[in-house]
Amino acid sequence: MAVCSAYTTQSLNSTCSISTPAKTHLGFHQKQVVFYRRSSKRGGSGSSSGPCVITCSAGDSQTVVIGLAADSGCGKSTFMRRLTSVFGGAAEPPKGGNPDSNTLISDMTTVICLDDYHSLDRTGRKEKGVTALDPRANDFDLMYEQVKAIKSGVAVDKPIYNHVTGLLDPPELIKPPKILVIEGLHPMFDERVRDLLDFSIYLDISNEVKFAWKIQRDLTLLKTLQRDMAERGHSLESIKASIEARKPDFDAYIDPQKKYADAVIEVLPTQLIPDDNEGKVLRVRLIMKEGVKHFSPVYLFDEGSTISWIPCGRKLTCSYPGIKFHYGPDTYFGNEVSILEMDGQFDRLDELIYVESHLSNISTKFYGEVTQQMLKHADFPGSNNGTGLFQTIVGLKIRDLYEQITSSKTAAPLEATKA
Ligand SMILES: Nc1ncnc2c1ncn2[C@@H]1O[C@H](COP(=O)(O)OP(=O)(O)OP(=O)(O)O)[C@@H](O)[C@H]1O
Ligand SMILES: O=C(CO)[C@H](O)[C@H](O)COP(=O)(O)O
């Protein structure tokens, strides 16, 4: 291994870091690693017994890494569709690649699914008697090395977990995007991976709601397959059994990650209907950590005050059971947070502008942008309640965070030049 000291760089704007030579067993992509010839007499004393590697990413293509954690079937894909829409352009699987790829690429974002780091396939897990939620079924070393590589501008060959076959497929090439989202069961589980995140989100869906969503999804699937009632009954039991079987590992390995999240979207049954167990009307809480770099929590009316607001009346149509907002400071796992809560659902999405105009720090670029985004995706699940509203707002906050990070990176060399 050579000692690296002085190198030429391709562009003044580049941010460069010295790394060890590409390690193919970790899937680093050799082609993306840039080799530079030693150019300067000054500092050129390093021995040159082997290849030195500099990996460069242009100043304007810094990869910002976002983590999104949730159990399976808890709305990660829906959230990702809202997020990528905020940046413009549709997200699609890699062109010409594996049709069962879990990756989604748009102009600005690449979303990778952490299921791809399962180290045991479906049969392997069955043989060992572990679930996919168990850390022993996942390769955190590879996850860390590859996310770190992408963040520093190096492409990787990431494995693919095929949900259709339950097997690990040959890897796919992931090039460093402007924004990398790692979504799945464990983005905040491993401390090394956690430290690479510029922002983290946890979707906390209560058991009652999770169950209602699963049934809804599976019954829709069954309906399209035109199965009979007997099979539907069987399916209900198996959905229940699968949720129960996952619960111990969910409680042990997934749920504890929420204490690390910068924002948590908590989804609970409504409090507006006494003893509601339908799970259709939802109470949704956006829990926002204070003091996170490049992130200022959203507030209602007056920052730091405690406020309850029923907006129904002349400007917002509400049918039973109505809509109730709450905002205020709180603590969450020992951290200071602000919590914005919405219970109930909108009758008319265009009237959301009335609510939007009373929210501050929502990082919109123009008046009504939240409402516009919500109307654009009115057919997505949760568009008439706090899940859609808060996912959209978090998407705008991530855009803002990205712009702040990239502008501070490009401003830094300028400041240094001035000094
Ligand atoms: N906000 C919501 N309101 C109502 N139902 C929802 C909401 N979000 C998701 N769902 C239901 O849950 C299902 C799963 O949503 P989605 O595919 O976004 O979750 P996921 O976490 O990506 O799932 P998976 O892990 O299985 O890929 C949807 O088909 C829908 O039925
Ligand atoms: O918790 C999950 C995350 O999506 C899946 O259950 C896990 O990835 C295993 O997938 P499959 O059930 O398709 O073998």
Automatic annotation (TrEMBL):
InterPro entries: P-loop_NTPase, PRK, PRK/URK. The keyword Cytoplasm does not apply. GO terms for biological process: reductive pentose-phosphate cycle. SUPFAM superfamilies: P-loop containing nucleoside triphosphate hydrolases. It comes from the Eukaryota. It is found in: Plastid, Chloroplast. Pfam families: PRK. Residues 65-219 form the Phosphoribulokinase/uridine kinase domain. Pathway: Carbohydrate biosynthesis; Calvin cycle. It catalyses: D-ribulose 5-phosphate + ATP = D-ribulose 1,5-bisphosphate + ADP + H(+). This is Phosphoribulokinase, chloroplastic.
